Amino acid sequence: MVTHSKFDNAMSSSLLDSSMRLPHRYKTFTKAQFQMVLSTLHKLQESGFYWGAITGKEANAMLASEPNGTFLIRDSSDNRHLFALSVKTASGTKNLRIQCDTTSFYLPTDSKNIQSVPHFDCVLKLIHYYMTQSKGNTRSGSIYYIYSEVEKVPLELIKPLSSLSTLQHLCRKTVNGHLANSSKRDQLPYPLKEFLQEYDSPI
Length: 203
Known about the structure:
Blueprint: E1 2-5, E2 26-29, H1 31-47, H2 56-63, E3 70-75, E4 83-89, E5 92-100, E6 105-106, H3 123-140, E7 145-147, E8 152-154, E9 159-160, H4 167-179, H5 190-198
Parallel strand pairs: 3-9
Antiparallel strand pairs: 1-2, 3-4, 4-5, 5-6, 7-8
C-alpha cells in the first residue's frame, strides 16, 4: 500500500507533468489504484470540464444559469473521496461523489435500484457512459436516478461545462468520436496515435 497526498504536492511521474497536482488530503492506494488515479487525473486536466478544488456552492453558482444536463467534475470536499460530479437538474444542481474502489470508479445508487452499477477504470469513461444513456434513455429504458431523502431525479448528463480548449484538443475529441473501436486508428502515424491515446475520450 502506498500513501499519497490527495492533490497538493507536485509529483514526479511519467503520467504527470510539473503542473499536475495530487489531492491535498491523504489517501492510501495500492500501486495499481494509484496508477489508475494518476491516469484519470491527467485526462481530466486535459478535458476542459474538470474544475479542480472548487466547492459545491461554487459549482452550484456556475451551473445555475445553464440548461438541465450541464455538468462538471471537481475535487470532492469529502476527505473519503477524490472527485465529485455536479450536474444541473430540473430540481437544481445535484452533487454526486464519484466512488473509487481498488480497480474502478462508479456512481452510487440507491439500494432500491435493481440495475447493476457500471464500473470504469477512468472517470471519463464513466461520464461518457452516462452521457450515452442520457441521450438514448427514452428508447432504451436505461434511466439512472439521483436519490435523496425527499426525491428521485433522473441522472441526465448532456453537456459538460468546459473552459476554453485548444483547437488541437477539440480536433482530438472529434477524431476520437469518429474512430472509437475502429481499426482505422491502427493505420494512423505513430505520433498522431500517441497524441490520441493521451486523451482517448470524445467528450
